[in-house]
Records
---
Amino acid sequence: MFRFFRSAHLRQDASPDATDDCDLAALRKYQRGVLLGGGCLLSIAIVAGLIALALFHADGFAARRSEALQRSRAIVEAHLAASDAAHLRLLSMAEYAWRHRPDNDARTLEVDRANYLRAGQRAVMTAGTESVPQTVLGAGTDAWPVDRLDRYLMLAHSLSIIRRLGGAGGRSSESESSFFLDPRGQLLVLGEGMSEQHLLSATGEKDRAQLIGRLAALSRTGVDGAEAYGTHATRMELVRHPVSGAPAIASALVARDGATVIGTFVTLESTTPLSRAMRIADGGVSFVLTGDGRVVAGTGSPKALDLGEVTRHLLDAEHKGRTLATFRQGLRFFQVVRVEEADWALVSTYCIADVIADGQRLYIAAASLAFGLLLGLWTLLAWLHWRAFGPALARAARVYQGEQLSRALIQLSPVGLCLLDRHSGDPVVQNDMMRQLAAAAERRGAMLYARMVDQASAILLLPDTTIAEFEVSVPDPHGQAPVVLLVGATSASYQGRMVLLCAVRDLSARIELEQQQKQARESAEAASRAKSRFLAAMSHEIRTPLHGILGHLELLGRSALDDNQQARLRRITQAADSLLQIINDVLDFSRAESGHLDLVAETFEPVTLLERVALLFSPLAEAKGLVLDVMVDDAVPARLVGPQARIEQVLRNLVSNAVKFTPSGRVELRADWVPDTDGSQLQLQVIDSGIGMTETQMARLFQPYVQADASIITRFGGSGLGLSLCRELSSCMGGTIHASSTPGVGSVFTFCIPVQAVPATGTLPLADRSVLLSSSASGWRDELRRRLERWGATVIIVSEADAWPAEHWEAHVPLVAFERSPARTEVASRAGRRRVILVSADGPLKPQVRANAWRVSCYSSDGLLQALLVSSQRGVPTLAVERGMH
C-alpha cells in the first residue's frame, strides 16, 4: 500500500527533489493516520462503554423508582383502609348507641335540655373527665319535639365516649376534625378540634344557621354517592379545612336506624400523616392526585406535571390491562399507578439530575477509569509517535533534506562559506559571497583557495588545534590598500572526502573605519589640548593686569570718596574679584585636565577647615536669613594629612553653590570618617534646603561650562565651571564626588577623599573640669558637646537656665551654658560677676568681653577654648550661650 501511495505522489512530481519530498510526506501522513485512526477507534469504544454503563444504571434507577412507587401505593391504600375501618367502627358504635338508648334519669334529661335551650341552643356534652367533649349547636331545634331533642342530646353524650374509644383504638385525633349533622340540617355536633367561634371566624359566616348550612354542604360531599357503596359507604374527597384552610381528606358516613337516616358523620383528616408515610416508603419525588388533578399528599411539588397527560397515560394503561403507566416530558420521566381505595392516582417523577445524583460514585469511578484508559492510550500513542516513529522520521528528514538545507544556509550566509578539498584545493561547495571574494583575489593575481588550504593545514597540524583562524592579505598591483580577509577553517568530511569548512570575512572596511576613527580621535584630542593651552595662556595673561587693577582699586578705596563713589568702587571690586575667581577656576580646570595640577600634602585640622569655610560664607548666609551649621562626627580624627588647599577649594565651591541656590532654610557642613579596606576617607557633605534638581538636571550637573538649567545664569549667575572643577579636583586627589537632590526639597553633595590620620598627642586643656551646656538648637548642642568633650571637659547638658542645680553656681565649679539669642542679656545679668560666653554666628573670632559676658563666634573653636581657659585662670565659673541657629 505504501508503494501505491508513493507512486501516486511520484506521478505528480517526478523530479529527484520531489521524490524525496514525496517519500517523506508519505511516511509522515500514513504514520500519523495509523496512530490517530487506531487511537480514535479505541477512544470511541471506551466512551461507548461509559455510555452503556450510564444507560444500564438509568434502567436500574427506573426499576427502583417503580418498586418505591408500589411501596408508596401499598402504604397509601393501607392508610386509607385503616381510615375506612376507623370510620365504620365509629358509625357502628353511633348507630348502636342510637338504637339502645341508656336509661337516663328523666331529671337529668330535663336538666340537659333546659341548659341547652337556656344557652341559646348550645351545650357541651361529656360523659366524664376521660371522655371527649362534644359541642351541640342548634338552629331551630327549640321547635322540635321534646323526645327528638332528648334523643339527639343523648347521642351527643354517647359520642363523647365513642370518640374516646376511637382515639384509644389507635387512630390519633390530633390530625383529625369531625362533626355530626342531623338530616334536617338543624343540629350540629362538633368534635375535638372544632369550635363555633373558630368556624364563624374562619368561614366568615354571620350566624349559626349559615354556618350549619355551610357544613351541611361539606357533609354532602360523600353522601351523594353513598348508595353506590352500600348502606355504610365512606366517600373520600379532598377539601379545604373550614378552620385552617389546609388541604384535608373529608370522609362522609351516613348513620341509619334501619331505613331511617339518623344523620351524617364527617371526618376531616390532615394530609400530613399520609405525606410522612410516603416519605418513609419512597425517598424520591411522588404525590397522590385526585380524579380532577388536585394534589392530596406527596414528597415533592408537581410543578412540571401535565395533568391531562397523566390521565391519558393512566387510562391507556388500564385499557391495555397494565397497572403502571410511564411517560416522559422532555428530560423528566413519570410513573403513574391507580390507588384502589379511592378515585386517586399515585404519581412518581424523576429527572436526569436525579439519575446522576443516584449514580454519582459509579459515574465518577467509571469516568476516572475511562479517563485513565484514554490518558494511557494517548500517552502510549504519543510515546510511539515521538520516541519510535518520530526519531525515524527525523532521521529520514535529515537524510532527505540535509544537503538542501546546508546549501541554503551557505547561500544565505552574510560571509563567504565554502568546502575546499584538502588535496586538490578545489571548492566543493561555496556561496555567492565566497565566489565574489575569490574572483576579486584572482583579479589581483592571488590564488585564494590554494593559500587558504596551505595556511589552514599548517595551523591545524599544531597540537590541540581544531579551528584555524588567520588573515590573508591580498595586495593590490596598482599600489592601493591591500584587501585583508579573516579566515576561520576546520576539518570536516563530506561525501567521503576530507574537506576544509572555511568562513571568510572581508576586514578591509573595518580596518579603514578604525583608522579614520583613530585619526578623528587624535585630532579632537589635539584640538582640546590646544584649547586648554590657549585658555590657560589667555587666563594667565588676563590675570596679570587684573591684579594691577585690584591693587589700584584698593588704593583708590583708601582715598577720600563720598558714599556714592564708595558704593560704585565696591561694585567694581566685586566684579573684579568674580572675574579673578573665574580665571583661577579656568586655570585649575586646565591643569586638572592636562594632569599638571599640583597637590601638596600637609597636616591640617578638619574642624578648623570647616570653620574657616563656614566663616567665609557666614555673612552671606546671615544676610539671606539662612542657618549655616557645622557638624563634625566624633570619629573624625583631630588632625589629618592630605591636600588641604584643594579640599578647601572643593568645599568652598560646594558651599558657595548651596548658599546661592538656597532662598530660605539651612545649609549644613558635615564631616564624617569612613574606614575602608584600602585606608580611610574623609567624607564631607554639604546639605541644603534649596531649590533642588530634577533627574535631567542631575545628568548635566558636572559638565564644564554647562548649567543645570537655562534659567540658572539669568537667576543666579555663574560660569558653569565650579562643579566640573570639583569633579576634576576630586579625581586628581583620588576621591569621588556625587550628588542627590529632590526638586523643591534640597540637595546633598558628598565629597570623599583619601587621607591619613595623625595620632593624637598632647594634653587635654579642660581635663577634669565640668561644663554646663544649654542650647535650644539640637545640632549645635551636639557639636559644642563634641568640642568640649574632645578638650577633656565633662559636659552637663541642661535644658533651661532655671533648671541649673544651685551647687553648680559655686565659684570653684566651672560652668558653661548655651541659650538662645533672646536670653543672652538675661543670662549675663543673672550671672552677676561670673563670666558668660555668648556663642553666635555673628560673634568675633577671638573672645571679647561685652556687657559682662564673653562673646565668640560659633565658627571659631580656638576662640571658644581661649575664652574657657581665660575664665578658668581667673577662677570664675564659665557660662557659654549659643545663639539659636534655626
Note: The chain is about 50% helix and 20% strand.
---
Amino acid sequence: MGDSRDPCPHLDSIGEVTKEDLLLKSKGTCQSCGVAGPNLWACLQVSCSYVGCGESFADHSTIHAQVKTHNLTVNLTTFRVWCYACEKEVFLEQRLAAHPPGPSPKFSEQDSPPPPCHPLKAVPIAVADEGESESEDDDLKPRGLTGMKNLGNSCYMNAALQALSNCPPLTQFFLECGGLVRTDKKPALCKSYQKLVTEVWHRKRPSYVVPTSLSHGIKLVNPMFRGYAQQDTQEFLRCLMDQLHEELKEPRVAAALPEARDSDSSDSDEKREGDRSPSEDEFLSCDSSSDRGEGDGQGRGGGGSPAETELLIPDEAGRAISEKERRKDRRFSWGQQRTSSEQVDEDADVDTAMAALDQQPTDTQPPSPRSTSPCRTPEPDNEAHMRSASRPCSPVHHHEGHAKLAGSPPRASPVRMGPSYVLKKAQVPSTGSRRRKEQQYRSVISDIFDGSILSLVQCLTCDRVSTTVETFQDLSLPIPGKEDLAKLHSAIYQNVPAKPGACGDSYAAQGWLAFIVEYIRRFVVSCTPSWFWGPVVTLEDCLAAFFAADELKGDNMYSCERCKKLRNGVKYCKVLQLPEILCIHLKRFRHEVMYSFKISSHVSFPLEGLDLRPFLAKECTSQITTYDLLSVICHHGTAGSGHYIAYCQNVINGQWYEFDDQYVTEVHETLVQNAEAYVLFYRKSSEEAVRERQQVVSLAAMREPSLLRFYVSREWLNKFNTFAEPGPITNHTFLCSHGGIPPNKYHYIDDLVVILPQNVWEHLYNRFGGGPAVNHLYVCSICQVEIEALAKRRRIEIDTFIKLNKAFQAEESPSVIYCISMQWFREWEAFVKGKDNEPPGPIDNSRIAQVKGSGHIQLKQGADYGQISEETWVYLLSLYGGGPEIAIRQSVAQLQDPESLHGEQKIEAETRAV
C-alpha cells in the first residue's frame, strides 16, 4: 500500500462535490436496504448519486463500487474518502494541488519550495478547516460523549475527568501533541490520561470506558485514594494535575525566561528565590487553609492520517466562513507560564500604599511560584508561617465553610519561603557560597491553569506595604450569607472597605444544638422564596468576598518589620495574571472535630461573560478578562455521603450534557444554571482570537510559493488554536539554548514541529513576536559534547563511590565513620544515575547537625543520615565542597573491652574546619 500522501490517480473521476450535497445525503438512507445513518457512504463518481450502507450493515457501498467499478466513496459521517482501487484513504485537496504548476504534493526534504501541506499530523493552519469538516461530522454525532464506569465510589474521579476532558486546550494537547507526552517517571499518569482522552474522543468511541489504568496510577501517587471510601473531587483534581505537571514539566530555556523586576525602582527590598520542584516549595495562598496512551504523536481519533485535519471539500478552500461556522469554530478552536518554583517578595518598604502600587513595575511574565500546601491542615495565623507544599492552589474546603470578609487571619498576605537551614539553638557553620542553581519549570498544566495574585499588607501606622506575588491553580471561594452580602453590597456602593466580620460567623463556634437549629433554619430558607428571605448569592458575590479587604487588628494584628511591633493593618489581594482556564471551587463543606456539614445554598453563576475586571491589579498584563463556562461539577448529598456528576458543554456542537458515571444525557442550559455547583471551569472568550485563526487559514489557502520554510513548535501552534491569548511564539520547546535540536529529541523531532509557509510565518511573527525563526533543523554539537562529558562524569563518580564503599564494607572495625545527609545523598544519587540532569549543590549536613554548648557540632538524634568512610567523604568533599563535617569515633576503651558493647556506646562528635 502506497503512502497516503501520494496523489490518487482516480481523483479525476470525481464529479462536482459540495458540502450541501453531502449533508443532504447524510440525512437519507441506503438506497439498497433503506437503513439510516450514521456511517453511510456516498459514491463520488461523475453522474453517480448512489448512497449505500457500510460494513456495520450489509456493506452495499462496497458492492456498488465492485459492480459499477466506481472507485471513490466518501463517509457521510466523517467525510473521509476511500479509494477501492488504491486501497487507501485519499484527500480531495490533492486533486487541487495536482493542477497548478507549483510544487508536487508529495513532499521531500530536498524540495526548495514548501509543500502545500506538511506531512506531520497536526497542520496548524487548518484550524478553521478542522472546525468546518469535523463540526459537520459532529453535528450528526458529536464526539466526547463517552461515559465512565464507576469502579466503586469513584464518581468523584469520573466527574473530575469529564470536566477536564471538556477543557479544549488540555484535550487538544494530548490529542495533537502526543510527541510531548513522554516521561520516565512512574506511574506515567500522563500516558494513562492520554490513552483515556483518546478513547473518549475517538470517532468510534464506545458508550463508556473503564478508567482502570488512571485509577491505579492515582492510587500509587496518593494512597488517600486507595480503597473504596468516598473522596473529594477537588482533592483528586489537584493531585492529578500536580502529577501531570511533574511528569510533563520541562526546564525553561534562558532566552524564554521572564526578566526579574527591578526592586530598586520601587524602594523595595524584595527577596526572590529560584525555582525548585513543587515538592520543595512552601506556600500560603490568599484565603488559604492548605494550600499533573503512548506518546507516539497520535492525532485526534488515535489513528488520524497526516492530512486528516486538512480541508476535505475542495470548493470550500477560498470561501468565506459564515457566522454559524464562525460560532462553531469558536467552540471548536480549543482557545502563561508555570515556574514550578517559588519567588518571594518580602516586605517592600514604601511611604504609602498608593505609592507602592504606583511604583510597582509591571511584568510581561510575573513571578509565579509553584507550590501547594497539604490538605486538611489548619490555617496559620501568622503570615510568615511555613508548611511543605506541592502545588499552588486555593484552599481545600475541609476546614473552612466560610472565609472571612474582614479581620480574617486565614486571609493573611501570603508569604512563601524556601527551606530553612537555620538551627534554633545555634548557627551551623556556613556550607559555602556555592549553591545549586535552581531550575525553573513549565508544563502544559501550568500554561493552561496557572494565574498569579498580588497580595499586599499595609501597616496603618507607618504605611509600610509588603507585597507578595503567588501562583494559583484554582480559587477557593467562600459562600457569603445574608449578612455578608449586605456588607459586600454596602462596601461596593459606598466604595469603602467591608467592615470586619467573617463570612458565616454563625458557623464559627457551633455546638450540637446550634448546629441543629442552623440546619432547620437552612431547611426553612431553602423552602422559602428568595424574595422573602433575601437576595440570591451570585458567583460575583463569592469573588467579591474572596478579594475583600481585611482589617488586621485585635488578636490578628500585623507584625510590622519597620515598626518592630504588632500594628493594625489592612490586607488585600488582586489578580496579577489571569489563567487561560479559570478553575473555581466553592467551599460548600465544613469539617469540625465532632461533625461535618454542607452548605447547600444556591450560587448563581453565568454561562457566558464572567468578567474579572473588577478584581484585577492595575499591573495585570492579561488583555482578555471575560470567561465562558466549560463545565461544572456538582455534589448531591450531605457532607458524609453523596454523589458527583458533571455538566459539560460539548465544544463541537455547543450543547450541554450531563455526565453521570457511564450515562451521558443531553440537558438544557437552564438545568445547568440551576445546578448546585461545587467546581466550575471557565475559559477565556475572545472573538478576536477566532478571527485571527480564520485569517491565518486564509493566508495558508493562498498557497503562495516561497523559498524558505519555517519550523514552528507544535505545542505553540496548539496554543494558537486553542488559547485566547497564546503569547509569543516559543520554539524553545524543541530547541536548546544554543539554537539546535537537543540530541535526545532529534529522533522524534517530527512530533515537535510543524512547517509553515513564509507568508503564514511572517503574519504570526508580526502579530505575536517571539521565535526564534528556524529554517533548518540540526543536532546541536555543543549539547552532544556536554552530554558525553556529563555521562563520563557520572560514570567516574559512581564507579569511584562503589569502589570506596566496598572497601568500607570490608573493614571490620573502622576507627571513624563519617555522616552524610541522606537528603543531599539522594540528590547526588539521582544525578549519577541519570534521573536528574542537574548536579547537586554543596554537601549540606546542616539538617543532621546540632551544636552543643561547647561549640562542637554533633549528630542530631533521629537525623536522616548515612554512614560513609573517611575516603568517601574526602572524595565527595573534593567534588562538591560543603559541610559541616560530622565524624563518629569509637573510644579506645570500647575497642579493647568487648563487654562494653552491652553497655552504653560512647560516641564523640568531632568537628573539623572545612
Note: Residues 1-99 form a domain with the Herpes Virus-1 fold (CATH 3.30.40.10).
